[in-house]
Design a protein that fits this description.
There is one protein chain. The chain is of the alpha/beta class. It is 26% helix and 24% strand. The chain has a 7-stranded parallel sheet, with helices on both faces.
């Protein structure tokens, strides 16, 4: 839908200018003028006391939408290694493509990483669009945006999915702006509307207090970033083949405005919450930062890792890299220990899909018990040593 001004009715009152949330309306010769930033939201239509602004169908959308087909997954890779979120997106992409009745494709960018295409085929991709250039060896916003945008323009995918990683959260909005389409960030659920065949994108809203389902009916491609650890990984089928489409990419002087001079890897302990099968997480109920040392002992026994709630991170007890929840990492381990965690909805949103949830808390009314499979009311400083003591009595105790 487009918004247009009826010049004869406009009185130049400027109420539409004040009502526009996108500052898309200006006054020229005492008449309202709709600018390119207009989204067609209709706020100005309601604000105009003279009925001088109206919505009008531009008649172009249906023809434009029919040209778009296929589900694309951004196959994020770093140093020639495929990121697990790409495998998760391929798993979800298979379901979406089956519901629509279209191909599942992956788009791969890099330098000398063509071998990853075989891996993508085995994980379910029917086609892999591969952009190979020295400039794509290290991720830069401009280079990846240009390569993928040109591919989208040429091949017109219906849906584009990216992981909500540092790279995906940077790349997704840039592509959406270039494609003049919308982007739903941090999705936790994707479905296809059986009637319209459009994608329904669900994400937490208002601090995780409710779930919003967002659609993009009038623009293509429909774009989403998806949190790592939320979707089921695609099953690997060794030997599965597909079609490799090599993209033609070239860069001129000025196309890439930044240069990667050096990659400095952090020397701090590596945290891989999304891949962990066992997570022992602590909150303010620990009472002190030293409490994480006890959690670490249990995690090591179970070959897992520790994690935390946001409150513990905000208190300075542990690094943000360990945070699970709405503003941290979404995880789905086989076993999740919630130690001294009350169960705020923001934290629950990041771990509620764990296989087995074991909650330990002195407050028997703590919300965490509502989602726990096993709830233990007690002092974690007594409960955890008791658990480890019992583990030591088991045969093959080191093998969980």
């Amino acid at each position: 839908m487009a918004v247009q001004v009826i010049k004869d009715k406009c009185k130049g009152c400027t109420k539409c200018v004040k009502s526009c949330p996108f500052t898309a309306i200006t006054m020229e010769e005492k008449k309202a003028v709709i600018g390119s930033a207009c989204t067609g939201c209709g706020q100005c239509v309601e604000a105009c006391p003279f009925q001088a602004i109206e919505k009008a169908d531009d008649g172009k959308q249906a023809a434009d939408l029919s040209a778009y087909h296929g589900v694309w997954v951004f196959a994020e890779q770093r140093e020639g290694k495929l990121m697990q979120v790409a495998v998760e997106l391929l798993g979800e992409g298979q379901k979406l493509a089956a519901a629509i009745g279209c191909e599942l494709c992956a788009v791969l960018c890099g330098s000398g990483v063509e071998g990853l295409a075989e891996e993508l085929f085995e994980y379910g991709a029917d086609k892999v669009y591969y952009a190979d250039a020295p400039e794509l060896g290290q991720y830069t916003t401009d280079a990846y945006t240009k390569a993928i945008y040109e591919a989208i323009t040429q091949y017109k995918p219906e849906i584009v999915l990216l992981g909500a990683t540092h790279i995906g959260r940077d790349l997704g909005p840039c592509l959406a702006v270039k494609c003049n389409t919308g982007l739903t960030a941090d999705c936790t659920k994707l479905e296809i509307n059986p009637e319209t065949k459009g994608i329904m994108q669900t994400r937490p809203a208002f601090g995780g207090n409710l779930m919003a389902t967002i659609v993009c009916p009038n623009h293509r491609p429909q774009m989403s970033t998806v949190r790592p650890g939320v979707m089921e990984k695609a099953s690997r089928e060794p030997g599965r083949k597909g079609q490799l489409v090599k993209l033609t990419v070239s860069f001129q002087e000025g196309d890439i405005r930044t240069k990667v001079l050096e990659v400095v890897k952090s020397v701090k302990e590596m945290v891989s919450l999304t891949d962990a099968e066992v997570i022992v997480s602590g909150g303010m109920g620990l009472g002190k930062p030293e409490g994480f040392e006890l959690l670490k002992k249990l995690a090591q026994r179970l070959e897992g890792t520790i994690a935390s709630s946001r409150a513990a991170v905000d208190a300075g007890w542990i690094d943000h890299a360990y945070q699970v929840g709405q503003t941290g990492t979404t995880v789905k381990p086989k076993i999740y220990f919630a130690c001294g965690i009350s169960g705020a909805i923001q934290h629950v949103a990041g771990m509620q899909n764990s296989g087995l949830i074991i909650a330990i808390n002195t407050n028997e009314s703590a919300p965490i018990f509502d989602i726990a499979d096993i709830g233990i009311v007690g002092d974690l400083y007594q409960v955890l040593p008791a658990i480890m003591e019992e583990m030591d009595k088991l045969p093959n105790a080191s093998n969980h």
